[in-house]
Each structure stands twice: as structure tokens, then as C-alpha cells.
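Let's study today's protein:

:::
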Amino acid sequence: MISGGATNGDSGRARKAHGMRLESMGLDLAPKSDPPISFGPEDLKGIVAPHNDALLITLTFANYDVARIFVGTGSAVNILFKTTLDQMKVEGFEFDPISTPLFGFTGHDVQTIRQIMLPLSLGTGPHRFMKMTCFNVLDALSSYNGILGPQALTDFQAVSSTYHQKLKYPMGNHVGVVFGDQKSSRYCYVDNVKVEVKRS
């Protein structure tokens, strides 16, 4: 679980307003016209099971294909690591300073360098879906290139299944699919253990 960060604001007042928003607005239960999203036995084709692998996918940031993006439903914000952003060498996008730190499950805080809005695309071809997405830039050791949190998943109305190693999202009358990389997930697990040992 990663908490903190500039979720809907970079101040105590903004975070309090975010928590109270449901009370003032209520839940929107209006029916949607999007196609239903489901997972079945056919989605297990090519998956090595049983497994406990994390869901790692490849996403497109401003025309750069970036692998090893961890789909982390326990992260309060979307994260890009500084080394990844440096390698992309994106230009023409504004950076916003951030003062709110992030907190991991150990309770230690990590200071976010800044925020950046980038065009993020799910899928390819006719099912490619692009939205401007906010990412917190973090200068930290990780075998992942970034973390896709509930903020982006909600914006894309995407549903993930770690078991099926897939991320699905509505695209018009169709359902788009992003496939997980099970092999990379296992390598990243080993690398992350090494990173934690080195940090200790």
C-alpha cells in the first residue's frame, strides 16, 4: 500500500475535501452503456498457473513504449521513476512541484520530485485509448519503470485481473485488452528483493 502524494491536491485542505466529496455528491448509480467486462477460462491461455505473479504491462507514454509498468491497485497515485522519465527524454510537458511525500507499508516517507501530465495510451490499433494522465515522479530504486494506480484505472474505466494477467477497458462498443508479461514479473520480483537488500 502506497499512500500520500498529491491525490486531488497538494494541501491538507484538498485532501480533506477529497474525503468528503462522496458525502456531498452521493454515488452515481446511473446505468452506463459501456460493454460488460469479464474474465473467463479463455483468458488463461498462455498463462503459467498456478502463480502469484504481479501484473506487469507495457504502456505508451507520449509515443514511447515503456515495459515493466506495475498495475498497483494499492497505490494512491500513479508513479513514474526518474530514471524512466530521463530515458524517455520527453519535452514540452509541464512539471509541477509537489510537497506531499509518499508513504509505503513500512511507514517510511519518500519525497516526490514533481508531477507531470503525459499522454498515456492503453492498447494498440483500433482499440488504442489515450488520455492525459498525471504521474508523480519518484527518485528511488526499483526494478519497475512505473506504477499504474487507481487514479488512472478509474479514468480509463479499466479492470485488472492479476490471476488472468490482463487489463481490460471499454473502448466504444468493444473491450480492449492489455496483456501482462509474466516472465518480466518474475524477473522483477528477484530484482526487487536485491534492491531491498541493497537498501538495507
Summary: The radius of gyration is 17 Å. The domain at 55-199 is CATH 2.40.70.10 (Cathepsin D, subunit A; domain 1).
